[in-house]
Amino acid sequence: MSKPLLEIWNLCASYGRAQVLFDVTFRLHAGEVMALVGRNGAGKTTTLKAVMGLVSASAKQATFKGHSLDRLPTYKIARLGLGYVPEDRRIFTDLTVEENLETGRRLAGAGRSPWTPERLFRLFPNLAEMRGRRGNQMSGGEQQMLSIARTLMGNPDAILLDEPSEGIAPVIVQTMAEAIRAMKAEGVAVLLSEQNWAFAAGISDRACVIERGEIRFQGSMTELMADKALRAETLGV
Ligand SMILES: Nc1ncnc2c1ncn2[C@@H]1O[C@H](COP(=O)(O)OP(=O)(O)OP(=O)(O)O)[C@@H](O)[C@H]1O
Asked: Which residues form a coiled coil (predicted)?
Protein backbone atom coordinates (compact mmCIF):
# COMPACT_ATOMS: atom_id res chain seq x y z
CA MET A 1 0.00 0.00 0.00
CA SER A 2 1.16 3.60 -0.67
CA LYS A 3 2.69 5.75 2.05
CA PRO A 4 -0.07 7.14 4.30
CA LEU A 5 -1.24 10.70 3.70
CA LEU A 6 -2.27 11.21 7.31
CA GLU A 7 -0.73 9.23 10.11
CA ILE A 8 -1.70 9.50 13.77
CA TRP A 9 -0.04 7.66 16.63
CA ASN A 10 -0.79 7.48 20.33
CA LEU A 11 -3.16 10.42 20.38
CA CYS A 12 -4.39 11.14 23.90
CA ALA A 13 -6.77 13.92 24.88
CA SER A 14 -8.71 15.00 27.93
CA TYR A 15 -11.41 17.47 28.85
CA GLY A 16 -10.32 18.80 32.24
CA ARG A 17 -9.35 15.73 34.24
CA ALA A 18 -11.38 13.29 32.17
CA GLN A 19 -9.28 11.51 29.58
CA VAL A 20 -11.39 10.71 26.50
CA LEU A 21 -8.81 9.49 23.92
CA PHE A 22 -6.32 6.73 24.70
CA ASP A 23 -3.45 6.13 22.26
CA VAL A 24 -5.58 6.56 19.17
CA THR A 25 -3.55 5.35 16.18
CA PHE A 26 -4.64 5.19 12.54
CA ARG A 27 -3.61 5.95 8.97
CA LEU A 28 -5.46 7.48 6.05
CA HIS A 29 -4.14 6.79 2.55
CA ALA A 30 -4.44 8.98 -0.53
CA GLY A 31 -7.69 8.58 -2.42
CA GLU A 32 -9.49 6.39 0.14
CA VAL A 33 -12.60 6.86 2.23
CA MET A 34 -12.16 5.70 5.81
CA ALA A 35 -14.96 5.68 8.36
CA LEU A 36 -14.35 6.38 12.03
CA VAL A 37 -17.34 4.69 13.59
CA GLY A 38 -18.43 4.32 17.18
CA ARG A 39 -21.32 4.91 19.52
CA ASN A 40 -22.43 8.25 20.79
CA GLY A 41 -19.67 9.73 22.97
CA ALA A 42 -17.01 7.22 21.83
CA GLY A 43 -14.58 10.01 20.88
CA LYS A 44 -15.05 10.53 17.13
CA THR A 45 -15.48 14.31 17.19
CA THR A 46 -12.67 14.73 19.72
CA THR A 47 -10.35 12.69 17.47
CA LEU A 48 -11.02 14.92 14.46
CA LYS A 49 -10.68 18.09 16.55
CA ALA A 50 -7.43 16.89 18.10
CA VAL A 51 -5.99 16.11 14.65
CA MET A 52 -6.85 19.67 13.60
CA GLY A 53 -5.40 21.16 16.79
CA LEU A 54 -8.81 22.36 17.99
CA VAL A 55 -8.64 20.26 21.15
CA SER A 56 -5.29 20.16 22.83
CA ALA A 57 -3.83 16.69 22.92
CA SER A 58 -1.78 15.57 25.93
CA ALA A 59 0.13 13.33 23.51
CA LYS A 60 0.05 13.53 19.75
CA GLN A 61 2.26 12.32 16.98
CA ALA A 62 0.81 13.14 13.64
CA THR A 63 2.08 13.67 10.14
CA PHE A 64 0.29 14.86 7.03
CA LYS A 65 2.10 14.48 3.71
CA GLY A 66 5.22 13.86 5.77
CA HIS A 67 4.92 17.16 7.74
CA SER A 68 4.64 16.93 11.50
CA LEU A 69 1.36 18.39 12.82
CA ASP A 70 2.35 18.12 16.46
CA ARG A 71 2.84 21.78 17.23
CA LEU A 72 1.06 23.44 14.33
CA PRO A 73 -1.89 25.78 14.80
CA THR A 74 -5.12 24.83 13.04
CA TYR A 75 -4.78 27.32 10.18
CA LYS A 76 -1.35 25.96 9.26
CA ILE A 77 -2.69 22.39 9.32
CA ALA A 78 -5.47 23.48 6.97
CA ARG A 79 -2.94 25.20 4.69
CA LEU A 80 -1.02 21.96 4.31
CA GLY A 81 -4.12 20.64 2.56
CA LEU A 82 -6.13 19.01 5.34
CA GLY A 83 -9.73 20.23 5.18
CA TYR A 84 -12.17 19.93 8.09
CA VAL A 85 -15.95 20.15 8.08
CA PRO A 86 -17.30 20.25 11.64
CA GLU A 87 -20.72 18.99 12.69
CA ASP A 88 -22.05 22.49 13.09
CA ARG A 89 -21.78 23.59 9.42
CA ARG A 90 -19.53 26.61 9.12
CA ILE A 91 -21.16 28.71 6.45
CA PHE A 92 -21.94 32.41 6.29
CA THR A 93 -25.71 32.57 6.58
CA ASP A 94 -25.92 36.14 5.20
CA LEU A 95 -23.98 35.23 2.06
CA THR A 96 -25.25 33.39 -1.01
CA VAL A 97 -24.08 29.95 -2.07
CA GLU A 98 -21.69 31.45 -4.63
CA GLU A 99 -20.35 34.02 -2.16
CA ASN A 100 -19.81 31.31 0.44
CA LEU A 101 -17.81 29.29 -2.10
CA GLU A 102 -15.61 32.30 -2.88
CA THR A 103 -14.70 32.68 0.80
CA GLY A 104 -13.14 29.19 0.70
CA ARG A 105 -11.02 29.70 -2.43
CA ARG A 106 -7.31 28.92 -2.13
CA LEU A 107 -4.72 28.09 -4.76
CA ALA A 108 -4.39 24.44 -5.72
CA GLY A 109 -1.04 22.66 -5.30
CA ALA A 110 1.15 22.14 -8.35
CA GLY A 111 -0.20 19.66 -10.87
CA ARG A 112 -3.74 19.63 -9.48
CA SER A 113 -6.78 21.00 -11.25
CA PRO A 114 -8.39 23.49 -8.88
CA TRP A 115 -11.96 23.21 -7.66
CA THR A 116 -14.20 25.86 -9.13
CA PRO A 117 -17.84 26.66 -8.36
CA GLU A 118 -18.86 25.05 -11.68
CA ARG A 119 -17.01 21.83 -10.88
CA LEU A 120 -18.57 21.78 -7.42
CA PHE A 121 -22.03 22.35 -8.85
CA ARG A 122 -21.58 19.15 -10.87
CA LEU A 123 -20.71 17.36 -7.63
CA PHE A 124 -23.61 18.92 -5.70
CA PRO A 125 -26.32 19.51 -8.33
CA ASN A 126 -28.81 20.80 -5.77
CA LEU A 127 -26.42 23.65 -4.85
CA ALA A 128 -26.32 24.64 -8.53
CA GLU A 129 -30.05 25.22 -8.44
CA MET A 130 -29.74 27.62 -5.49
CA ARG A 131 -26.50 29.43 -6.29
CA GLY A 132 -28.01 32.85 -5.50
CA ARG A 133 -29.72 31.74 -2.27
CA ARG A 134 -28.51 32.91 1.13
CA GLY A 135 -27.32 30.36 3.68
CA ASN A 136 -30.14 31.18 6.08
CA GLN A 137 -32.70 30.06 3.48
CA MET A 138 -31.22 26.60 3.08
CA SER A 139 -32.09 23.33 4.83
CA GLY A 140 -29.64 21.66 7.20
CA GLY A 141 -28.61 19.15 4.53
CA GLU A 142 -28.08 21.86 1.93
CA GLN A 143 -25.98 23.84 4.41
CA GLN A 144 -23.95 20.71 5.10
CA MET A 145 -23.22 20.28 1.40
CA LEU A 146 -22.29 23.93 1.07
CA SER A 147 -19.95 23.56 4.02
CA ILE A 148 -18.22 20.63 2.28
CA ALA A 149 -18.15 22.43 -1.08
CA ARG A 150 -16.65 25.53 0.55
CA THR A 151 -13.91 23.39 2.12
CA LEU A 152 -13.16 21.80 -1.27
CA MET A 153 -12.64 25.31 -2.70
CA GLY A 154 -9.45 25.30 -0.60
CA ASN A 155 -8.20 22.38 -2.74
CA PRO A 156 -7.43 19.97 0.12
CA ASP A 157 -5.75 16.60 -0.43
CA ALA A 158 -7.82 15.13 2.38
CA ILE A 159 -10.93 16.17 4.22
CA LEU A 160 -12.20 15.28 7.69
CA LEU A 161 -16.00 15.14 7.74
CA ASP A 162 -17.75 15.08 11.09
CA GLU A 163 -21.11 13.27 10.86
CA PRO A 164 -22.12 14.58 7.43
CA SER A 165 -25.33 12.55 7.42
CA GLU A 166 -26.55 13.73 10.81
CA GLY A 167 -29.94 15.39 10.90
CA ILE A 168 -30.42 15.54 7.15
CA ALA A 169 -33.31 14.23 5.05
CA PRO A 170 -32.91 10.68 3.60
CA VAL A 171 -32.96 11.97 0.03
CA ILE A 172 -30.08 14.34 0.81
CA VAL A 173 -28.19 11.53 2.58
CA GLN A 174 -28.16 9.72 -0.77
CA THR A 175 -26.84 12.81 -2.57
CA MET A 176 -24.21 13.19 0.15
CA ALA A 177 -23.07 9.59 -0.39
CA GLU A 178 -22.76 10.22 -4.13
CA ALA A 179 -20.79 13.42 -3.50
CA ILE A 180 -18.35 11.60 -1.19
CA ARG A 181 -17.83 8.89 -3.83
CA ALA A 182 -17.22 11.61 -6.42
CA MET A 183 -14.72 13.38 -4.11
CA LYS A 184 -12.83 10.12 -3.81
CA ALA A 185 -12.90 9.70 -7.59
CA GLU A 186 -11.37 13.18 -7.85
CA GLY A 187 -8.50 12.04 -5.63
CA VAL A 188 -9.55 13.60 -2.28
CA ALA A 189 -9.08 11.27 0.69
CA VAL A 190 -11.93 11.33 3.19
CA LEU A 191 -11.99 10.53 6.89
CA LEU A 192 -15.59 10.30 7.88
CA SER A 193 -16.82 10.28 11.46
CA GLU A 194 -20.22 8.59 11.46
CA GLN A 195 -22.88 7.12 13.67
CA ASN A 196 -25.02 6.15 10.69
CA TRP A 197 -23.68 2.66 10.07
CA ALA A 198 -25.50 2.03 6.77
CA PHE A 199 -24.23 5.31 5.34
CA ALA A 200 -20.63 4.69 6.45
CA ALA A 201 -20.65 1.05 5.28
CA GLY A 202 -22.00 2.03 1.87
CA ILE A 203 -19.22 4.47 0.98
CA SER A 204 -16.08 3.53 2.93
CA ASP A 205 -13.12 1.43 1.83
CA ARG A 206 -11.77 1.03 5.34
CA ALA A 207 -12.98 1.53 8.89
CA CYS A 208 -11.74 2.31 12.36
CA VAL A 209 -13.95 1.39 15.26
CA ILE A 210 -13.56 3.56 18.34
CA GLU A 211 -14.97 2.57 21.69
CA ARG A 212 -14.62 4.64 24.87
CA GLY A 213 -11.71 6.53 23.32
CA GLU A 214 -9.76 3.47 22.14
CA ILE A 215 -9.40 2.06 18.64
CA ARG A 216 -10.86 -1.45 18.73
CA PHE A 217 -10.53 -2.31 15.04
CA GLN A 218 -8.85 -0.97 11.94
CA GLY A 219 -9.17 -2.74 8.62
CA SER A 220 -11.21 -3.05 5.49
CA MET A 221 -14.93 -2.33 5.54
CA THR A 222 -15.48 -5.82 4.11
CA GLU A 223 -13.71 -7.31 7.15
CA LEU A 224 -15.78 -5.24 9.56
CA MET A 225 -19.00 -6.15 7.74
CA ALA A 226 -18.09 -9.82 8.19
CA ASP A 227 -17.36 -9.46 11.94
CA LYS A 228 -20.88 -9.46 13.30
CA ALA A 229 -19.79 -10.03 16.90
CA LEU A 230 -17.49 -6.98 16.95
CA ARG A 231 -20.13 -4.79 15.31
CA ALA A 232 -22.78 -5.88 17.76
CA GLU A 233 -20.49 -5.27 20.72
CA THR A 234 -19.01 -1.93 19.69
CA LEU A 235 -21.64 -0.38 17.44
CA GLY A 236 -24.86 -2.18 18.30
CA VAL A 237 -25.55 -2.98 14.63
N1 LIG B 1 -16.35 20.10 25.58
C2 LIG B 1 -16.39 18.99 26.31
N3 LIG B 1 -16.19 19.03 27.63
C4 LIG B 1 -16.21 17.89 28.39
N5 LIG B 1 -16.42 16.65 27.88
C6 LIG B 1 -16.63 16.56 26.57
C7 LIG B 1 -16.62 17.71 25.71
N8 LIG B 1 -16.87 17.28 24.43
C9 LIG B 1 -17.00 15.95 24.50
N10 LIG B 1 -16.87 15.51 25.77
C11 LIG B 1 -16.92 14.10 26.22
O12 LIG B 1 -15.87 13.41 25.55
C13 LIG B 1 -16.31 12.12 25.17
C14 LIG B 1 -16.13 11.95 23.67
O15 LIG B 1 -17.03 12.86 22.99
P16 LIG B 1 -17.05 13.05 21.42
O17 LIG B 1 -17.97 14.18 21.12
O18 LIG B 1 -15.68 13.09 20.91
O19 LIG B 1 -17.73 11.68 20.97
P20 LIG B 1 -18.40 11.28 19.60
O21 LIG B 1 -18.02 9.88 19.36
O22 LIG B 1 -18.08 12.28 18.56
O23 LIG B 1 -19.93 11.35 19.96
P24 LIG B 1 -21.13 12.14 19.24
O25 LIG B 1 -21.50 11.26 18.13
O26 LIG B 1 -22.14 12.22 20.31
O27 LIG B 1 -20.58 13.47 18.82
C28 LIG B 1 -17.75 11.98 25.64
O29 LIG B 1 -17.73 11.33 26.88
C30 LIG B 1 -18.19 13.41 25.79
O31 LIG B 1 -19.18 13.52 26.79
From this structure: none
Nearest to 148 by CA among 109, 129, 175, 110: 175
> Which residues does 53 contact at the CB level (< 8 Å), separation at least 6?
69, 72, 73, 74, 77
Q: Is 167 in the pocket of ligand 1 (CB under 6 A)?
A: no
Closest-CA residue, ligand 1 atom 4, reads: 15
CA atoms of 39 and 195, how far apart (whole Å)? 6
Q: Answer for the pair 236, 37: CB distance below 8 angstroms, yes or no.
A: no
> Are β-strands 189-194 and 33-37 bridged in parallel, bridged antiparallel, or unpaired?
parallel
pLDDT tens digits, 156-201: 999 999 999 998 888 889 989 999 999 999 899 999 999 999 999 9
Sign of CA dihedral 70, 190, 74, 115: positive
pTM score of the predicted model: 0.95
Q: What share of the chain in percent tops pLDDT 70? A: 100
pLDDT in tens, 76-88: 999 999 999 999 8
SS3 at position 188: coil
